[in-house]
Structure formats: structure tokens, C-alpha cells
Amino acid sequence: MTTLFGKVALVTGGTSGIGKATALALAQAGAKVVVAGRRQVEGEETIRQIQAMGGEGFSVTTDVSKEADVQILIEKIMTHYGRLDIAFNNAGVEQDSTPLAEQTEATYDRIMDINVKGVWLSLKHEIPALLKNGGGAIVNTSSVLGLVGGAMVPIYTASKHAVEGLTKSVGIRICQARNSGECRQSGSNSNRNARSPFQSKSKSDRGFHQRAANRSDWYAGRSGKCCIMALFRRF
């Protein structure tokens, strides 16, 4: 992994799973890590493990669906470290597989508030902080269901399609504002940064996108996470 000494990284949803693993990996690479999540005890445990390996960081109990929480989170980072270089917007929830007629408004609101609104609020407050330091990197967790349909989880699927569109749109805007030479994907500087676990290693990302577009049945018995990275300055 690239050395990240001197960099400050934020991981939302860093209390377990992909978020926790990423927080530990960032710390191992030398970054100072801030873990955000709704579960205080688990967040503190992630930081304890980071400190046990000689790393540095702190946790902030945060509900990314609430703007006041996100604003306080970024303010604490800037007050404590004076900078933000990396943001991994990983906080999210999944959906139980149920027929559409049995899905509730409460389920819809919960998934959209965290998976979509949470990413939007995070980007809104992270980007100004990153730009104060001249730029940085943002990674948003998506899903293979951000590319194809999921018959029994349409709300979750819609939320991940929204994350894909939000990431691309924000990436385009940053490129336009900064006139960056790193813009990709038809003028956007949003780059697919990770493949689904069941993608053939011998195929390019472009090939994966094409196959995903042609395989609406991929939801059946499969699951996989992928990330979209918006870069506006390389380390």
C-alpha cells in the first residue's frame, strides 16, 4: 500500500466489516484515522486496535443521515488535525429480501436516508475540508447492485444506483471547477477503483461494466461490493 504518513483519513461506517478493515489498513499505511459510526463502543474498539498497532486516531459517534452530526464530525477533524486528505464514505444498510408489496415506507426511508442522503451529506461537508488542503481522495461504497437490478431488494438497489450517479455527478463538477487534467469517464474524474469479487481478473473494468449491463440476473444468489473513487489530486 502507498505510504500515507502525514495524511488524515475519515472512514464512515468504520465500526465493522469493510469500514473497519479499511480503517485498520489506512492506519497500517501510516494515516491518522477518524472512525465515524452510530455504534460508539464498536468505534472505540476500532481505534483501540489502531492504537495497538502503533497508529493514531479517534472515533466520533455519527449518524450520517443527520447533517448536524456530519458537520460536527468534520469540524472535530479539522479542529484536531487541521486537515482532511482521504474520505471513505462507507456507512450503509442493506435490505431484507421481501416482495415489493411487503416492503414498508419505514424501510424505504431508512435505506435512502443512510445510503444516499448520508453519502450526499458527507460529500457536502468533506469536499470543502479537502480543498482547504489542496485536494485529496474520496471513495464511496457502492455495490454490484448499483449497476444491475435486484428483484427482491429494489430499495437497496435504487440506493446504490443513486450513489453511482451522485459520485459521477460530483466528480464531473469538481473537474469542471478545477479544470483537472485527471478527468476520466467522458469528462468525469470518477474512477472505478475495485472490482466485484466474482469479476474475472483477466477482464478490464470496462468489460465488467458491459457484462453487468447485459446481466440483469446477477442479483440471484450473489453479492459483492465495489467502490467508486473520485480523485482530484493524486498522493
Could you characterize what this model shows?
- With 235 residues, the protein is α/β, with parallel strands linked by helices.
- It contains six helices and seven strands, in the order E-H-E-H-E-H-E-H-E-H-E-H-E.
- Helix 1 (17-28) links the parallel strand 1 (8-12) and strand 2 (32-37).
- The longest helix is centred in the middle third of the chain and has 28 residues, at 105-132.
- The chain is globular.
- The model is unreliable at 180-206 and 208-235 (pLDDT under 50).
Distance from first to last alpha carbon:
12 Å
Compute the number of helices.
6
What's the pLDDT, averaged over the residues? 80
What structural category characterises the helix and strand content? alpha/beta
Low-pLDDT parts are 180-206, 208-235
Strand portion: 5-15%
Tell me the number of strands: 7
Into which percent range does the helicity of residues fall? 40-55%
What does the overall shape look like?
A: globular
Rg over CA atoms: 18 Å
Q: What strand order characterises the main sheet?
A: 3-2-1-4-5-7-6
Major sheet attributes: 7 strands, mixed
Describe the oligomeric state of these chains in a short phrase. single chain
In short:
The protein is of the alpha/beta class and 235 residues long.
Spell out the blueprint of helices and strands.
Blueprint: E1 8-12, H1 17-28, E2 32-37, H2 40-52, E3 57-61, H3 67-81, E4 86-89, H4 105-132, E5 137-141, H5 154-178, E6 190-192, H6 205-214, E7 227-231
Parallel strand pairs: 1-2, 1-4, 2-3, 4-5
Antiparallel strand pairs: 5-7, 6-7
Helix pairs in contact: 3-4, 4-5
